[in-house]
Amino acid sequence: MIGSANLNIMIKAARKAGRSLVKDFREVENLQVSMKGAGDFVSKADIAAEAILKQELLGARPTYGWLAEEEGEIPGEDPTRRWIVDPLDGTTNFLHGLPHWAVSIALEHKGKIVAGVIYDAAKDEMFFAEKGAGAWMNESRLRVSGRNRMIESIFATGLPFGGRSDLPATLQDLARLLPTCAGVRRWGAAALDMAYVAAGRYDGFWERRLNAWDMAAGVILVREAGGLVQPIDPDGDILEDREVICANEPIFNAFSKVIRG
Known about the structure:
Belongs to the inositol monophosphatase superfamily. This protein is an alpha+beta fold.
């Protein structure tokens, strides 16, 4: 697929940041240090990857705005366009030597996500989508799964940790969902969870208390792969409310009914 100039800039930036992270990831397994020391190392890897992305993306499009995990929001001269970036989604996996993490980049235009890239550098899987041009992984076109029965479907989510206040709601979600489906997965990288829905590997995904950069690229990937994406609150806004539910069309209503209670 030949994408737009912006999409090609995003893919190039994701690959460059991914190479830096893969190099650092190999060092994580060799670190014989305290948790704090390893955490500091990963934080430096995260910051270095964001610096690469900022240089590549704002270097190519200096008038665009910027929203990212480390530096927060930087308004651009062009108020209609903004990069939304997570240099390392799945930081805890990275810290523990688990090869399931990604670079995530989205382009927002007039409040709508128009392009997204999620790069799983450890597996060299480049997921990308652009409005009206479909969703892809490397050279393959992506489609959401065709399953139409909840009992045959598997779903993904994040589980609250460290005593977060949304734990009771998530436990209630699981209590309602688990009896109706083939399983729930928790792999610790929301961007990849949404990419996997787009690829048909998962049938659906939901999570609360995410950040915009965790899910912005995933939103367009799922939509361009033929899936439905909504806020958990039907009257809400995905990025502002920091929550999302997505699935293939045949099971979306049943799945969302379970999650929304």
